[in-house]
Write a structure and sequence with these properties.
- The structure is a homodimer.
- By secondary structure, chain A is mainly α.
- Helices cover about 60% and strands about 0% of the residues of chain A.
- Chain A is built from 12 helices and no strands.
- The first copy, chain A, binds a DNA duplex through α2 and α3.
Chain lengths: ~270, ~270
DNA sequence: TGAGAAACGAGAGCAGTGCTCTCGTTTGTC
DNA sequence: GACAAACGAGAGCACTGCTCTCGTTTCTCA
């Protein structure tokens, strides 16, 4: 597996692979390890280990249940039944249904994140359209294999639910891969940070520390939007009787996006 | 208000305005009047009238409640409380929660449908980029004013819920406006209906009776996807800390799409 | 006009949910 | 070994969608 190279100077903090060792990234990656979050109470004790195991079992049962019936049909009582414990016991591990859902959301973000990272890294760095295609196809495959998890993170948020800080680091993995790929070679020492477009994309402009032109960033966000628009329309049933072969059309659209954003050259 | 002209020959059955009187459209529009669906029992009787009124009141209360707490928090019992009736009485009007939801979905599709149709029709037919911009801005405004209704129809479908036939006619209104606008003047007497792309878009190719090239159709679907991708990313919170001014960026993206799909000319 | 049928509203009830509280037990720590 | 924290189990609360029954109202048709 070939790592995406780390352009610490040209694209600040946009590090695609976990092995990146620039200043800011380690903390970001560390924050993503949601699985290890519940193991903090008691270091190496027996109790801590069985707690971690049960926490994982609960999440596994929840994931299984969600894959069958969707996120909003997820029932804490059904999980406790499956695990043979009292219905009240689950609250020792997750304070509420929302907290379990948040853990599942983080896991889903990380799952699709590593999938996309690996797909991009499996194509030589020089072949940008190839990487883009691999990335997009991997994203779609993941979405189709995990429709309910896709809906959980990219569909309508459950009412009243506000994503906690914990999720944002994991949530950025896919767009970061996408942007870092699309913007390779598009960087400047000091891009124009003024203007309407730069204002509209202020968050992104600051994130990239002004090394990328607002126009290039805008193209990247547009691509991001079309990618998820295609997937959402397909997965949520809006291609019925219209786009008869979504896979073939998806590849066509991805190639068209690649030509538009990356240019026609390899 | 200026009607979009009806190109019965060039774009078969893609009629943008309700006043269209081609062969196939009247039945389509008729099927969209979900409001009148429950009035069929008893023509002009008193009972039928109060039934229609109560049905409308239930839907109004449901819409109000959904606007506050989202679709999955919608409670039949809360509606009956608000209306001062027994909890069981609501089942005389809607056989299940899903049936109420379906009615709300149809209404939402029609609501956004007329909004977009009117916006497109408010710009002279010759100004295609202007129409596209008006259409897109109206679509976004509607989405922002009705976020929960947007999520209801374009977000993740509720688990186990399958859209009944009733919804598809209403659901096609927005894409039909979009496609008919994008494809004006792009028609041919007999476009190539073969090839991979035509196969992938078989449903659309058949719908347009082969008068539009698969390439043009693909561009239209891509635009559709980017439009809804932009809105979904924004409304579902994925632009947080990234696209700081979503409205401004949306307009930029729409103009970029218009230039790409409609060409740079007016 | 009056009888029968259909539609209706209200209430009780069932099975399910998220969540809380209490109580006795187990485990870890000083 | 004492004490506290963590834990599992159970009962219980308020809520949900939905069903069934029963008495009343309304419509229809002879």
């Amino acid at each position: 597996m070939i790592d995406l190279e780390h352009k610490s100077k040209s694209i600040a903090h946009i590090c695609v692979v976990r092995s990146c060792n620039c200043l800011d990234c380690p903390s970001r990656w560390a924050a993503m390890a949601s699985t290890e979050r519940n193991e903090s109470a008691g270091a190496g004790g027996v109790r801590a280990r069985v707690r971690a195991e049960l926490t994982a079992e609960i999440k596994a049962a929840a994931t299984r249940q969600m894959a069958e019936s969707g996120a909003s049909a997820l029932s804490l009582r059904a999980i406790t039944r499956e695990l043979g414990m009292a219905s009240s016991a689950i609250y020792r591990y997750f304070a509420s249904r929302d907290e379990l859902l948040t853990a599942l959301i983080i896991d889903a973000y990380n799952d699709v994140g590593v999938t996309v990272e690996n797909a991009a890294a499996s194509v030589p760095a020089g072949d940008r359209p190839g990487r883009f295609l691999a990335l997009a196809v991997a994203l779609r495959s993941w979405a189709i294999e995990h429709p309910n998890q896709y809906a959980l993170i990219y569909g309508s948020p459950v009412p009243g639910y506000v994503a906690p800080e914990d999720t944002i680091a994991s949530a950025t993995r896919v767009p970061v891969v996408l942007l870092s790929l699309l913007l390779e070679g598009e960087t400047e020492d000091s891009a124009d940070q003024e203007g309407e477009l730069a204002d509209a994309l202020r968050g992104l402009v600051d994130f990239t520390e002004g090394t990328i032109s607002p126009d290039a960033l805008a193209l990247g966000v547009e691509t991001w939007a079309e990618l998820f628009g295609l997937l959402s329309l397909e997965l949520f049933g809006h291609f019925e009787n219209t786009v008869t072969d979504p896979e073939r059309f998806f590849i066509h659209a991805v190639e068209s996006m690649a030509a538009r954003v990356l240019g026609d050259d390899g």
